[in-house]
Amino acid sequence: MLRIRIPASTANLGSGFDSLGIALDLYNYIEIGPALGCEISSADGSNIPAGEDNLIYLSAKKVYEKAGLPFYGLKIIEENNIPFARGLGSSSACIAGGVFGANELLGRPFDKDELLDIAAEIEGHPDNVSPALLGGFTACAMENGRVKYVKSNIGSELVFVAFVPPFELKTADARAALPANVSVKDSVYNLSRSALITASLLSGKYENLSTGCDDKLHQPYRLPLIPDGEKIMEESYKYGVLAAYISGAGSTMMAIFRTEKAEAENIAQKILSSENFSGWKYFILNADNSGAAAL
Length: 295
Ligand code: HSE
Known about the structure:
- Helices cover 35% and strands 26% of the residues.
- α1 crosses α2 and α2 packs across α3.
- The chain has 295 residues and is α+β, with helices and mostly antiparallel strands.
- The chain is globular.
- L-homoserine (HSE) binds next to α5.
């Protein structure tokens, strides 16, 4: 059996809808090996789909199909640490883990860019699967089914405080809340800011991040689906956050600080005790710059 580690990811970064993402050092682990049929179990007791509709299994099978090789089945043991349906890339970690694991088992018929194309095809957008596979900060665009991307490492001076609420928000529901059309004015608002985030992260001009993460395409429509989400953002700004935004499609609220992890933890505790944020938890994270890896 092959053991694989896959990072969580935070997508959109506010204005970079469906295009920007950062991998985080919170990991799922998968053991994967050949089998006759579908054998899926959980190492941590979480309730997972154990049939052929399991996302890791489906994604791995897709790699066999794309490689034109016969598929007889797989044994998969999952250890899930990334919370489900909370905007931290748990689905993308399954997809990235499945395609990466199958590619390793098959002796690497595909390079990482080709694997990323397969993963993005399965996910439908590249902003979580790219950092999950490649690590770091990724800026992506889809062209003719291929992911065009730039990956850049993120230093440990940036600390990501993920405020995770006690409720799920399914990506499909969060996408259904979005309007079908947007104005040119709002489009310009977002494209200027997503360019600003990208340039600021690459150059270290972090003081631009709060402006860069502002958004008019999805957050105004999704915040009503995240009770207390806006309050968490407001509280974060009282403690000098660089930027606060809905992580991916939500429900997690992400706050980026430039500080030590211990100080970020102190701030997170103060924020959650400042009001009655019942059931919210936090993770104190750095970026992961490695992406999916065989251990
Ligand atoms: N870009 C996606 C969205 C991320 O916001 O819907 C969640 O998969």
